[in-house]
Amino acid sequence: MPLALLRRMRTKRPDRGSGLRMPLPVGAGAFSCEVLDPVGQALGGVEVTVTETRGAARTVAKATTDPHGLFLATLEPGQYTVLLTGSGLQPNRLTVDIVPGQSEPPRRVQMEPSQQLELPPPGTWLFDPPHTAIRFIARHVGMANVHGRFTRFRGGIHIAERMEDSRVEVVIDASSINTGNNTRDAHLRSADFLDVDNFPEIHFASNRFTWRSGPKWTLQGPLTMHGVSRSVTLDTTYLGAVNGGYEQELRCAALATAELHREDYTLNWRNMLARGIAVVGPTVKLELDIQAMYRNHNTPTPPE
């Protein structure tokens, strides 16, 4: 019942001017705004940058809207440019004049969707290894991050007539793990971790494409590693398609990220420092930075 009441209140979009009034520092004024999404709902996480319009155009405030879409800043008198940006949205720019001792009701700003990038044409797209990277980050001894990558892999994307029916498949040579340290890499290949002698490949195959907003998509599917399969979600940003590369071939690009839990894949090797801090953290951040070439009879062979 309280949730339903809250939704009805949100739908009415009450005037929030009185609720945002606050004591001001002597000689200062205030700017506030309420940011709405393209359908008129409160939009949190929009980046708001306030810049002086005179002199060196110094940035004086920078933050993101709260979950209710609200932003407020106290400012010295003068004229400012307010830039609002968000993923999948057109930037919105305002000019505001700040008057000493005044705090106007929040200005309502409705964001509009950005022009969606043209999706790649249907067909099969093959990864271009020299221009594709599969990277990971793991926490080490509770402080620093260890960065690594897999240097050998293959895969591609099948773009369907209906984008939501498309598929991605990636096969990684587990023994190609490289963190820049031979001793550490040998340990990661051992039975304590990847056990590459018994599980030579890491495999991902998507079974669901879901559009979120603008260039943002979600890919879901099973990731098989160390003999265990678990469903994972890849947060994916489509970067567009162009003619370019070795022979001006058609290629597309995307960046996908996910967070994996080691113990989900029985990579549960444990070793503690004297204070009980784990040598290796429980999660691994995975990043796939992909360029793929449209496959036809003219598709060039990537160089070794």
UniProtKB/TrEMBL annotation:
Belongs to the UPF0312 family. Coiled coil: none annotated. SUPFAM superfamilies: Carboxypeptidase regulatory domain-like, YceI-like. InterPro entries: CarboxyPept-like_regulatory (IPR008969), Lipid/polyisoprenoid-bd_YceI (IPR007372), TTHA0802/YceI-like_sf (IPR036761). Residues 101-124 are annotated as: Disordered. It holds the Pfam family CarboxypepD_reg. It comes from Streptomyces asiaticus subsp. ignotus. It comes from the Bacteria. Residues 124-293 form the Lipid/polyisoprenoid-binding YceI-like domain. This is YceI family protein.
